[in-house]
């Protein structure tokens, strides 16, 4: 009975350490890459699935962050549905986006298409 508990504990501990290690490797990759350096990207790993969340300045940076995360050894899948893009007008300081400016990285093209329809 005690051995079963110990084995389960050591397996859970090993999985937790692996998740922390993978999180650190992806964070490092994002911070070391020039395009994504300084972006507000949060990283969380669980069983090989890396979740990216936060805000980046453009759709292109969002795509670059996803590709960088996918390139890290040990990453099985990247979930970026919580990674949002927002634009900063030239000459203005960045501000937190409001609901109308927030664009989910995955739905960027669809929202642009909808916006062009409403303008005409």
UniProtKB/TrEMBL annotation:
Pfam families linked: BON (PF04972)
Coiled-coil spans in chain: none
Organism phylogeny: Bacteria, Pseudomonadati, Pseudomonadota, Gammaproteobacteria, Pseudomonadales
Gene3D superfamilies per the UniProt record, alphabetical: 3.30.1340.30
Disordered: annotated segments: 93-120
Comp. bias intervals (Basic and acidic residues): 105-120
Protein's recorded name: Hyperosmotically inducible protein
PROSITE patterns, per database record: BON (PS50914)
Domain BON as annotated: residue spans: 18-87
InterPro entries per record: BON_dom, Lipoprotein_DolP
């Amino acid at each position: 009975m005690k051995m079963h508990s110990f084995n389960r504990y050591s397996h859970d501990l090993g999985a937790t350490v692996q998740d922390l290690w993978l999180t650190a490797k992806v964070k490092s990759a994002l911070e070391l890459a020039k395009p994504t350096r300084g972006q507000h990207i949060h990283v969380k790993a669980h069983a090989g699935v890396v979740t990216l969340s936060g805000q980046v300045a453009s759709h292109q940076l969002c795509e670059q962050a996803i590709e960088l995360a996918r390139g890290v050894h040990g990453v099985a899948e990247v979930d970026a549905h919580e990674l949002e893009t927002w634009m900063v007008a030239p000459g203005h300081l960045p501000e937190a986006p409001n609901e109308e400016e927030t664009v989910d990285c995955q739905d960027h093209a669809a929202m642009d298409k909808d916006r062009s329809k409403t303008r005409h």
